[in-house]
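Q: Got a minute? One more chain.
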Amino acid sequence: MAPFWKTRQQMGVAALIVAAGILLSRFMGLARDKLISLFFGATLESDLYFAAFVIPDFINYMLAGGYFSITLIPFLTKYFEEDEEDGWRFFSTVFTWITITITAVTLVAFIFAPRLAFLAAPGLGEEAQGRLAVFLRIIVPAQIFFLCGSCVSALLYMRKQFAVPALAPIVYNLFIIAGGVLLRDRGMEGFCWGVLAGSVFGNFLLPALSARSGGGLRLGFSLYHPGLKKYVLMALPLMIGKSITIVDEQFIRIFGSLAGVGAISWLNYARRIMLVPVSVVAQAAGVASYPFLADLFAKKDLPRFYDTIKSALQNVLTLLVPLSIWMILAAEPTIRLIFEQGRFSAQDTANTARLLQVLLVCAACWGYQQVLGRAFYARLDTLTPAILGTVVAVLSIPFFYLLAIRVGPMGVAIASASSLLAYSIALTVWWRTKIGGDAFSGLFPATLKVAGLSFASLIPAWGVGKVEFFPPKIYPHIAAFSELALSGLCFGITFTLLAAHFIPETVRPFLKRAGPLGRRLCTEAGSSAGIEIDKRGKRA
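A: Always. Here it is, folded:
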């Protein structure tokens, strides 16, 4: 049996691998944030750490780092299928130029760190911006290894080897945690050194070693390939255009600095919790489905192309809508259980929970646009999402500013949620107008039914969650865990039973993978709907 890093995965297995990797990575990220909240709470020091990522992340996004693997995959597939030698020449050319470019940009950012610190957090004082510049100079070189590692990860994705790219962020977070613990006496600076070490070992060396042993890695110095121009033209919209999904986190940090001390930290903690289900569900579906969507479109198999998009969107919404609705109910005990300890006070919990509830209102939009955005990319259209996202981002700037000044942290959260809703609507309207509605057939009525059943399931979950087995003031963490467990279990059981009865076609893909009980519910639901189901939960 071949080692896991050499194994090619099909779409279903790939989605599971990516989902598991993202889930573990998110838990590691929560553990990291838990340490930060334990040691530093929601203070100026933690605000500085989170603000230190504004400039490095912007550099990454400026060079399409967040979408580097996505844009590179179709080109690698094409050149390697036609001529392997030519494929390696193209890969080496792209790798050479991205290394030169990111190194030069990083050097400039390192030199001008004090001035860039003001742009990252204009609401901070002069002394605080000086320390922010120190953090910035430690973190910014990590972008070299992120970008180069993304180039190698694209090679692994092209080979449909998803395991190691899924493992990379876990290793990255381990190094951040280790740096924070080992260098705790240096404040948040230890976490910054962990970021740099994690980028080297987790995001670059691990994929490089995997690629070398799982199919070969041949790199040479090359400045020209005919395909480079085509690749740059495709990636250019992602470099120039700044989609609201890319800059949202930066807007939260920049405008959060105008909302008072602690605001950046509260918003960051809330956003991290909101993105846990989004990343596990939607990012896994998007990453795993993209190579298959690209393949179907390349083969001009449009019926299967649209069916795959619709299936991915429906599955993402069917999971995210109930999860986000229940998490709105469970926001306060969730924050209390994860963060309330050490320097993170009960008041910090209350402030963060309110922000989390606002962000969760449009959590499903995050998942929706991730899948639909990759459908655009599979059609080799990076321009449309970039233009629409940039327009939404620019229009949202005064909205962020006014709400940050007048409403405070809550205003920043409202602006963030609203802008994501606007972007999702813009993508949908453009697709339906220019391409057609095949990818959305029956999607929105089914999602409305899911939302209705979710709200119905919320009523008993709320009642059960209010039963106090442990006094919250005496046992805050045990009480929070009890409330989450009881309300979550009640919500899950109620929603599953209602969904199996009222929307069996929508939830069948999940029920038939939920073990004997799920398959039994699937069979009973199919029988009640007049559909013949075999023993494995499939249509006969």
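A: Confidence is low (pLDDT under 50) at residues 529-540.
Q: Perfect, thanks.
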